[in-house]
Design brief:
Blueprint (H helix, E strand, L loop, with lengths): L6 H4 L7 H10 L2 H20 L7 H26 L7 H18 L4 H26 L3 H20 L13 H4 L1 E2 L10 H27 L7 H23 L4 E2 H19 L1 H11 L1 H6 L4 H27 L10 H11 L11 H20 L4 H29 L1
Antiparallel strand pairs: 1-2
Helix pairs in contact: 3-16, 4-10, 4-11, 4-14, 4-15, 4-16, 5-6, 5-7, 5-14, 6-14, 9-10, 11-12, 12-14, 15-16, 15-17
Length: 408
């Protein structure tokens, strides 16, 4: 008997109804969807608890400046975690690279960019050092980076001779504290910030439309067009509101431009390059990746080189923000970066995680810390709350895996 094609088989990908599309949008990849919902809920909660103070232009600007270096670290950390590793040394690398910059700029009187370039070069060397031990010697990343945490902290104390160095002065401090303001406006309002935000929204909408068309072309399920439009409008509204707040304060922070470039670049690297696919392959199934011809050692080496570079960049940003270098700089930064990745949907066993998710996870930590500080909550209780949030995020990841295994 000859099989007869059903209408569903002949018409290609079907556009679900709005109700079915909403269900699909919520249930498909719930971990990623849930983190955005949680972020909006946390922002709304602290807006209410602080009487709107957390959403003021000044506080929104301070939030960007205070937590930018953690977000930079989270970009590199999520790649490390996706590959099935961990890096405990990034806080010490932040301290050491900031100390190198301080010695050159403050003590030796070198130009600001010499200090920044030297710090980045040291970060790359540190990444190569740790990548060698992990990739080619085979020492677990936990041990290598734990040793690195102690080693680079000790080197920081040696370089600074156990004293703090300050101030850097401008233009070094402009890296983390400078603004593009008054280019297209004045009197407390900067139109340039809004124009940049509008361009970013248009770019985001175009990329999402292209991605949707690609999924349709490969006969994959997509959300209904009304829901797709609502999603784009929601993102546009949040971005433009954020830009409006910045425009009414001091304009567009330079560090936000740096962060935006990094997010775009690493989102492309992790999702649309061979290197990114190999990282996910290694973290998802190491044996299968090796059998598929992935050069595991080389990929692991460059993962840590990249982490060293981003840790050094975070060191430059942090030292610029604090206008100096301190022996104790970077304490607990590695835990904040790791927490941002796990809260943002990265899996404890590797193979799962996105740069965008890590950014949202970092922002959740930032909003919670900032909101509790505005409320006058003691630092001890802030640590308790953040620890519980991290524990629940990892527990949710494990729950999802068990449910997926049971459904097979």
């Amino acid at each position: 008997m000859t099989a007869v094609a059903t209408p569903q088989q002949t018409k290609g990908p079907q556009q679900p109804s709005p109700v079915a599309g909403l269900k699909e949008l919520v249930t498909r990849n719930m971990r990623t969807s849930g983190i955005y919902i949680a972020f909006v809920a946390i922002v709304a909660l602290f807006a209410v608890l602080t009487g709107g103070l957390s959403l003021s232009p000044r506080n929104v600007t301070s939030l960007v400046l205070q937590y930018s270096y953690i977000l930079i670290l989270a970009i590199g950390m999520v790649i490390v975690i996706v590959a099935g590793h961990i890096d405990l040394s990034v806080g010490s690398v932040v301290a050491l690279t900031g100390a190198i910059a301080a010695i050159l700029v403050i003590q030796d009187g070198r130009p600001w960019w010499v200090g920044a370039v030297a710090a980045l070069a040291v970060g790359l060397a540190i990444g190569a050092w740790q990548g060698f031990w992990v990739a080619y010697v085979g020492v677990p990343a936990f041990i290598v980076t734990l040793a690195g945490m102690l080693l680079f902290r000790g080197l920081t104390l040696i370089v600074l001779d156990n004293i703090s160095l300050s101030p850097f002065g401008q233009p070094y401090t402009n890296v983390a504290g400078g603004f593009l303001n008054g280019l297209l406006g004045g009197n407390g309002f900067d139109a340039f910030t809004l124009i940049i935000a509008a361009i970013a929204v248009v770019g985001y909408a175009y990329s999402q439309l292209r991605a949707r068309q690609g999924r349709i072309r490969y006969q994959q399920t997509v959300e209904a067009m009304p829901l797709f439009v609502v999603k784009i409008l929601a993102v546009a509204a949040v971005v433009m509101w954020f830009a409006w707040q910045l425009a009414h304060e001091r304009g567009l922070p330079i560090v936000l431009i740096i962060l935006a470039v990094l997010i775009i670049a690493y989102s492309v690297v992790t999702t649309r390059t061979v290197f990114g696919r190999h990282v996910y392959a290694i973290g998802g199934n190491l044996a299968a990746a090796q059998l598929s011809g992935v050069k595991v050692k080389r990929v692991n080496f460059w993962i840590f080189v990249n982490m060293g570079f981003l840790a050094a960049l975070a060191g430059v940003v942090f030292s610029s923000r604090s206008n100096g270098a301190q022996p104790a700089a970077g304490q607990m930064f590695e835990l904040d970066a790791i927490a941002a990745c796990f809260i943002g949907g990265a899996s404890v066993s590797g193979g799962i995680g996105r740069v965008g998710g890590a950014m949202v996870g970092g922002l959740i930590m930032a909003v919670m810390s900032n909101g509790m500080s505005l409320m006058g909550v003691n630092q001890s209780w802030q640590s308790v709350v953040k620890g519980l949030v991290l524990l629940l995020a990892v527990a949710y990841d494990i729950y999802n895996k068990r449910r997926a295994s049971a459904g097979r």
